[in-house]
Every structure is written in structure tokens, then in C-alpha cells.
């Protein structure tokens, strides 16, 4: 039988701690929430009040539930308040010196069977455990940001963590409505070990002026289906926290991928910490606000179409997944499309795939029957590149082989009218 907790503690009420306190209180636990001084406690309390206020506004809880939730949290500015907690989660900044201080103090204040957990993203849980007299009851409990929303928690077991402690914490995660994954003590665990190389790379891309912050974020949201772009995510995580995580991972693994892009440290030193300070890669309405406001890097107005040449007829070459999708999108967008394939059989395959897709779109109510018919009417098929002669734009989506694409472009150059644009879908 897993241990049933009734009182838990949270140390550090910043980006993560305030959310973790809310998650505990939501599931009926009494929570002792501690930060360094009254101002920090007030910020933490305000964070929980705002977050639960938003939940009420969205109909996710009623006002009475909110009152009860807030009533279960006791705020304090001294760790001595943790004396009765059966489990404490530490969520102070990602620095070993701070965390070891907190762990030694908790070890002194809390009962011997109290489980001490850290929300660290990258520091060694084992190294933290040995500053206490109870290393077997020290564990990692890594929540994700924002804690009330994200489903995952990583449970980090060191080589000395008692199996019962792991079971107790896994059961607690389930009670909180979270899905847990249990992993060994290696910097970054699962999610951050995979995520942070990518975030770091996105920052370098931005710093090298390869693309704007808006375009980098749009590429990953709209091209890869992620809910948030990497630079917006850096701001959500906190630039200082991200720096400490990358730095620890780099020191531990020596993988260049994790060597923090220099601009991250510069931003940290300049106090551009992301949402929490109101300015990071983006600017926000106020400290802690998720609302992005315009700043000197915000692109001016929408110039789409200004001076652009008119495109009426588009050619698409190829019969694979991409070509089929592109033909459909362009035809649905109101352009005439000539599809060029190598042979009748492939042309039929393209035609049938688009008909099926349009049929589904009608069934799902995404387009009307009239839209379907007019889209089909705008499409024509050919097996000869010569039929692209009057296109304003030709998009090739043939096999990913440079020599094939080069030969095709050379051919098209002789066929298309002057001023026509040739585009490639190469990855
Ligand atoms: N930010 C994220 O997205 C994220 C996600 C998962 C885990 N984490 C981890 O959570 C921990 C906290 O990160 P954060 O982003 O919430 O940091 P933060 O800077 O937003 O908040 C830290 C809080 O700890 C308080 N604090 C500092 N020293 C303290 C002490 N001695 N006693 C009590 N409170 C103290 C600060 O006043 C502040 O309120 C870090 O270990 C971080 O790696 C962060």
C-alpha cells in the first residue's frame, strides 16, 4: 500500500513552485508554501490566485472550489513551517549551492520519514541527497511548465532511493492526475535531455540573424505541429532557468549541442528573463503576463501582396504525398492548377487521392459541396511538361535527388514563359 499523504510542502514559489502548490491543493492536500521573504510569498500567492481565477473564468472550477483550494494553502516565509509536511518539493532556482542549503535545512526541520523531493531539471539528485541524513528518502519529482496544465511528471530515482519511496511518489503523481515516468539520475532526464539541444539551436539561429523570432516560432508551430515555438517556450521557461539547465547538461555530457548559446547568458545578466520579468525574446504586457506586446523587433504591418506579381495558374510536378497535398491546397485557394505526372496511371492516382480528400472535407463540414466542385473544376492533368508553358508559378515536388531536380529545372527553363517563378519543395 502506497503512503497516503495529507500535508505536503513546496519551497520556492516562482514559475514552477506556485503551480506545484496549486496542483497539490487541487487534489485536496494541505499545502505549506514557502519562499524567502514576504514579497516573494506575496508574488507566489498572487500567482496561485490569478491562475485559479482564470480557471474559474474558463468554467473549469467554481468560486467555492477556488476558495477551498486557496484555503488549503498556508503561505510562510520560513522553512521552519515545514515541520509537519510528509513530503516537500523544492523548487528554488536551478543552482546547486541554493538547493543544498535548502535540503540541509529541510533535513533538520522535517520528521525523519518525510520524503524530500526536488523539482530540479538537470542537477544531480544524488548529489543533493547526500547533504541530508536520509539519502534513501530523497527523490526527483520533476513537473512541467505550467504545472497545473502539463500532464507529465518525471520521477527520478537515485541508486539509493528506497523502492517504497518511488512507489509512494508514483501513487501521489496518479492522485494529482498526472502521468509519471520513472527514470535514473542523469542531467535532463528524458524530456529536457531531448528538448534543450533544440531550444539552444533555435536561439543560435535567431542570434545569427538566420530568421526572425516570429519565423522561427511559426516554423515549429505550423510546420511541425508543436503548440509553441522554441523562443516563446524559452520565455515561458525563464532565460535564467534555461541557462542553468543547459550549462549543467553541457558540463555533464560535454555535448556541443548543450553549450549555452552566448546570447542566453547575456540576456540573463541583463535581466531579460522572459515572461517573469516582462521581457525576453518577446516583450510582455507586464511581469508574469503571457500577453505579447509589440516592440522594436515586431515586424511592421502586413505587406502581403504589396507589389507581388499576379499568380493565376500554377503547375505542380510530381505524384507523391507532397505533390497531391500541394495541388489540393492551391486549387482550394482559388488558383487554376495543372498537375504534371509521368504517365496516366500516376495522374489517376493523384486525381483519386484529391477526390477522396475533398470528399472527406465535405463530410467533416470543412468545405461545402460547391467548394468541392469548383476546386475540382480548377484542376487539370497532363503528362507533358509543355503544358506548363502558360503557368505563372511552377512547383516541383519530385524525388529528393539533386540531379533529378536540376535536370527538371533546366527543362522548365526552356518551357515556361518569361517571369514565371520556379519553386522547389526540397527539404
Ligand atoms: N521554469 C521551468 O519551465 C521549469 C520547469 C521544470 C522544472 N523547473 C525547475 O524548477 C526549479 C525552479 O525553477 P523556476 O523556473 O520556478 O525558478 P524561479 O526563478 O521562477 O523561482 C524560484 C523561486 O524560488 C525562490 N527562492 C530562492 N531561494 C529560496 C530559498 N532559499 N528558500 C525558498 N525560496 C527560495 C525565489 O524567490 C523564487 O520565487 C528549478 O530547479 C528549475 O530547474 C523549471
Share of residues in strands:
5-15%
Given the C-alpha coordinates, what overall shape results? elongated
Give the bound compounds.
nicotinamide-adenine-dinucleotide
Briefly note the structural class of the backbone. alpha/beta
- Order the strands across the largest sheet as they lie in space: 3-2-1-4-5-6-7-8
What is the helix content? 40-55%
Count of DSSP H/I helices: 15
Per CATH, the architecture of the largest domain is 3-Layer(aba) Sandwich
Distance between the termini: 53 Å
Number of strands: 15
Largest sheet: number of strands, sense, barrel closure? 8 strands, mixed
Description:
The protein is of the alpha/beta class and 427 residues long. It has three domains: 177 residues, NAD(P)-binding Rossmann-like Domain (Rossmann fold), CATH 3.40.50; 103 residues, N-(1-d-carboxylethyl)-l-norvaline Dehydrogenase, domain 2; 112 residues, NAD(P)-binding Rossmann-like Domain (Rossmann fold). Helix content is 43%, strand content 15%. The chain contains 15 helices and 15 strands. It has an eight-stranded mixed β-sheet, sandwiched between helices. It has a five-stranded parallel β-sheet with strand order 13-12-11-14-15, with helices on both faces. A two-stranded antiparallel sheet has the order 9-10. Helix 10 packs across helix 11. The mean pLDDT is 96. The structure holds nicotinamide-adenine-dinucleotide.
Amino acid at each position: 500500500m502506497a503512503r497516503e499523504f495529507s500535508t505536503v510542502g513546496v519551497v520556492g514559489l516562482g514559475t514552477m513552485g506556485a503551480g506545484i502548490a496549486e496542483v497539490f491543493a487541487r487534489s485536496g492536500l494541505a499545502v505549506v508554501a514557502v519562499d524567502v521573504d514576504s514579497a516573494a510569498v506575496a508574488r507566489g500567492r498572487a500567482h496561485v490566485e490569478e491562475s485559479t481565477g482564470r480557471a474559474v473564468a474558463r468554467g473549469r472550477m467554481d468560486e467555492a472550489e477556488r476558495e477551498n483550494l486557496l484555503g488549503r494553502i498556508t503561505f510562510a516565509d520560513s522553512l521552519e513551517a515545514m515541520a509537519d509536511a510528509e513530503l516537500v518539493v523544492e523548487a528554488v532556482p536551478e543552482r546547486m549551492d541554493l538547493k543544498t542549503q535548502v535540503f540541509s535545512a529541510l533535513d533538520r526541520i522535517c520528521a525523519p520519514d518525510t520524503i524530500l523531493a526536488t523539482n530540479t531539471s538537470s542537477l544531480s539528485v544524488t548529489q543533493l541527497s547526500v547533504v541530508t541524513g536520509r539519502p534513501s528518502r530523497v527523490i526527483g519529482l520533476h513537473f512541467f511548465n505550467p504545472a497545473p496544465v502539463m500532464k507529465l511528471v518525471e520521477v527520478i530515482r537515485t541508486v539509493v532511493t528506497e523502492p517504497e519511496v518511488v512507489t509512494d511518489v508514483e501513487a501521489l503523481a496518479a492522485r494529482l492526475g498526472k502521468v509519471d515516468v520513472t527514470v535514473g539520475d542523469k542531467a535532463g532526464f528524458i524530456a529536457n535531455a531531448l528538448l534543450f539541444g533544440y531550444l539552444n539551436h533555435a536561439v543560435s539561429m535567431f542570434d545569427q540573424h538566420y530568421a526572425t523570432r516570429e519565423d522561427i516560432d511559426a516554423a515549429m508551430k505550423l510546420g511541425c505541429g508543436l503548440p509553441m515555438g522554441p523562443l516563446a517556450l524559452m520565455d515561458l521557461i525563464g532565460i535564467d532557468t534555461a541557462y542553468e539547465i543547459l550549462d549543467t547538461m553541457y558540463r555533464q555530457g560535454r555535448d556541443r549541442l548543450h553549450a549555452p548559446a552566448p546570447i542566453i547568458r547575456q540576456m540573463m545578466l541583463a535581466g531579460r528573463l522572459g515572461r517573469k520579468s516582462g521581457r525576453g525574446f518577446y516583450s510582455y504586457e507586464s511581469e508574469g503576463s503571457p500577453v505579447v506586446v509589440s516592440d522594436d523587433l515586431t515586424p511592421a504591418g502586413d505587406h502581403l501582396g504589396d507589389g507581388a506579381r499576379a499568380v493565376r495558374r500554377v503547375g505542380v510536378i510530381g505524384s507523391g504525398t507532397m505533390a497531391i497535398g500541394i495541388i489540393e491546397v492551391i486549387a482550394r485557394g482559388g488558383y487554376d492548377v495543372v498537375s504534371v505526372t509521368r504517365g496516366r496511371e500516376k495522374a489517376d492516382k493523384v486525381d483519386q487521392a484529391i477526390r477522396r480528400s475533398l470528399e472527406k472535407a465535405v463530410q467533416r463540414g470543412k468545405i461545402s459541396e460547391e467548394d468541392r466542385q469548383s476546386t475540382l473544376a480548377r484542376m487539370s492533368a497532363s503528362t507533358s511538361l509543355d503544358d506548363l508553358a502558360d503557368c505563372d508559378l511552377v512547383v516541383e515536388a519530385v524525388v529528393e535527388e539533386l540531379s533529378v531536380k536540376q535536370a527538371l529545372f533546366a527543362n522548365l527553363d526552356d518551357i515556361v514563359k518569361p517571369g514565371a517563378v520556379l519553386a522547389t519543395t526540397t527539404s
